[in-house]
Amino acid sequence: MTLQTSELNTQAVLAMKGAGYYSARTAGAKHAIDRVRPMLEDALQSLPQQAILRLADFGAADGGTSQEMWAGLIATLRANGDSRPIEMLYTDLASNDFSTLFRTMQGMHGDTAHAYQNSYENVFVHGCGTGFHQQLMADASLCLGFSATAMHYVSKKPCEIEDHVHMVGATPEERAQFSAQAAADWERILLARAAELAPGGRFICLNFGIDEKGRYLGHTGGQSMFDNFTRHWRAMRDGGRITKQEFIRATFAQHYRTVEEFTAPFDDPSSTVRQAGLKLISVETRLTPCPYNALYRGSSTKMSSADYAASLIPTTRSWSETVFRTALASRPEAEIQALLDAFYDDYEQQVAADPSGHAMDYIHILMAIEKQA
Ligand SMILES: C[S@@+](CC[C@H](N)C(=O)[O-])C[C@H]1O[C@@H](n2cnc3c(N)ncnc32)[C@H](O)[C@@H]1O
Fold first, then answer.
1. What is the set of domains in the chain, with CATH numbers?
2. Three-class DSSP labels, the chain
3. Ligand 1 center–CA 55 separation, angstroms
4. Of all atoms in ligand 1, which is nearest to the CA of residue 15?
């Protein structure tokens, strides 16, 4: 299928559902972030001695999922006597709901207990709406960068996937194109961070990927979430509710890198990334269990399968809806809404009928990267 230029550029269509919907429905993402706090606490031990302590959260969405973690780190810094001014830079795409983010940090939305801007002097919250494939701040000015669950998005779709919605179900030829795009993007991301980081500064990231057992988001044994998205989207096509083109256009602009794909730029001493001064400190894979499934299985007052389905599907919807919405973009809004509701309802009914094997466990690749002094 031939892609138009506007379709190739994913920057305008990726944002999470706004008005706090993302954080409210994404407990798993917050758990994954809270669990990497020790890596960030470790980075605090050797922060660069800049006059201004600049921190950054790349691809932060509405900021809600990482708020407690950042509040905790700032508390540690101040408790350790570090009274430097802190500039906290939240980055995401221009289409992101930064308004909710700023209100959250000022205690006007979400969990006010962690509205750290209110609790500490000399902490300045900024936003940046430029994608993280570019350099976003001045050379050597960043002390600690962080990114969670964001860099699996490729900067542009290299092709549409004809018979699936995600690269995990693509043909080998389609998958190779996604792999090449993701490699070029990863190099750009790392070179941009290399320029921004002050010597000794760290970039800690956890990204969706494929682990050594071949597991990935929603595919950790049992059902495969992306196969189920495809199954219901295909049923809408086969039932005449959406067109063949709309079916194909619902291609996630994502690539789940393997550990080898993530570490490749660090393997060769002459690579651009190594030459730019970045060093890989650690890499590991981690499964964060689906909190909705844990609640369902552990519930003493037996949760019904319908209630479980009604808790699980909105979390998938919080980050996937824009893909299907974009595929339907030529239709009137009321029609789009009805089709999306029907699509997610179908999936919800599948889970309600037989919940076994349905869960959205997270698989992350965690990396600590340092700019050499
Ligand atoms: C799944 S959300 C993760 C949000 C948050 N970091 C978390 O872990 O809960 C992915 C975020 O990455 C953002 N994103 C995707 N591509 C981006 C890019 N090129 N530059 C900056 N942000 C991007 C999306 O807009 C979205 O807010």
1. 5-371 (3.40.50.150)
2. CCCCHHHHECCCCCCCCCCCHHHHCCHHHHHHHHHCHHHHHHHHCCCCCCCCEEEEEECCCCCCCCHHHHHHHHHHHHHCCCCCCEEEEEECCCCCCHHHHHHHHCCCCCCHHHCHHHHCCCEEEEEECCCCCCCCCCCCCEEEEEEECCCCECCECCCCCCCCCCHHHCCHHHHHHHHHHHHHHHHHHHHHHHHHEEEEEEEEEEEEEECCCCCECCECCCCCHHHHHHHHHHHHHHCCCCCHHHHHHCCCCECCEEHHHHHHHHHCCCCHHHHCCEEEEEEEEEEECCHHHHHHHHCCCCCCHHHHHHHHHHHHHHHHHHHHHHHCCCCCHHHHHHHHHHHHHHHHHHHHHCCCCCCCCEEEEEEEEEECC
3. 17
4. 25
Look at ligand 1, atom 5, and give the residue with the nearest C-alpha.
60
Give the residue whose CA is nearest to atom 25 of ligand 1.
15
Ligand 1 midpoint to CA 276 (Å):
25
Asked whether the whole model's pTM tops 0.90, one would answer yes
Q: Using most ligand atoms within 8 A of CB, pick from 153, 156, 365 the residue to mutate for ligand 1.
A: 153
Choice between 11 and 70, residue whose per-residue pLDDT is larger: 70
pLDDT in tens, 251-288: 999 999 999 999 999 999 999 999 999 999 999 999 99
Which residue has its alpha carbon closest to ligand 1 atom 20?
131
